[in-house]
Design brief:
It contains ten helices and nine strands. It is of the alpha/beta class. It is globular, with a radius of gyration of 18 Å.
């Protein structure tokens, strides 16, 4: 019997590519995103090409009630989740005092609250079955403050810290937790975050969503707690350990501004 993976943010980018990879590995899938049309297109593609079952749940995870609604629907359908992939997230660019609070609030709900709540809802049954994996998409932004994207960077720092703490708590269980930290990736992230981020992305070599997804899947299967994608990103994070934090935040501010 195939195991089942739930993937948030599955309609595009890294989540879409992870859906393709996990379908090819014979996992049944629960696909979660806002766009029901895109999810149904992906469901059709996957079921036509792989011998798996795909369930679509169209929810906006920036809504605080969405995780519980998803969990209740899974219970109603008697659908157990073996792998949880918390991929959904977005960013915003600009000086914090001048940002749209509604967008900041939605970002916090999506990047932090929904990830945490879904994990809390689905983790107990994994522990009870003595089997399960959780993959959280963090970022190289997790390792430093991010002036002009302050809430986004802070949210990714939370994802990394939460994942590491949870992995330690579960060290003697059969449930693994992995945080993957990619750099700038070719997705619709920059468009959603605004003009400032698009300019920054245009100056940097962006990794492909397909490559990041494959790395993420492999890291999860190897039970890596923290996995940084790409040698360039690994070297950057390593060097940060030896620099004053004031210098780091000023460098990031200059890049972002």
């Amino acid at each position: 019997m195939n195991e089942t993976a739930l993937i948030t943010g599955a309609s595009n980018g890294i989540g879409y590519e992870l859906s393709l990879i996990m379908a090819s590995e014979n996992y049944n899938l629960v696909l979660v995103a806002r766009s029901e049309d895109k999810l149904n297109e992906l469901k059709k593609l996957l079921e036509n090409n792989y011998n798996i079952k795909v369930k679509v749940i169209a929810k906006d995870l920036s809504n605080q009630n969405a995780p519980l609604e998803i969990y209740e629907q899974l219970k109603e359908d008697n659908c157990k989740i073996d792998i949880l992939v918390n991929n959904a997230g977005f960013g915003d660019h600009g000086a914090f005092y001048n940002t749209d609070w509604n967008k900041q609030n939605e970002m916090i709900n999506l990047n932090i609250l929904s990830l945490t709540y879904l994990t809390r809802l689905l983790l107990p049954s994994m522990i009870e079955r003595k089997s399960g994996k959780i993959l959280n998409l963090a970022s190289i932004a997790s390792f430093q403050p991010g002036p002009y994207m302050s809430v986004y960077y802070a949210s990714k720092s939370y994802v990394l810290s939460f994942s590491e703490a949870l992995a330690c708590e579960l060290a003697n269980s059969e449930v693994s937790v992995s945080a993957v930290c990619p750099g700038p990736t070719k997705t619709n992230f920059a468009d959603a975050a605004g003009e400032g981020t698009k300019k920054l992305f245009s100056l940097m070599k962006n990794d492909t969503a397909k490559d990041v997804a494959r790395f993420s899947y492999n890291s999860m299967m190897k039970n890596k707690v923290v996995a940084v994608y790409g040698m360039k990103n690994k070297m950057l994070i390593f060097c940060e350990r030896f620099l004053p934090r004031k210098l780091i935040r000023n460098i990031v501010a200059r890049l972002q501004k």
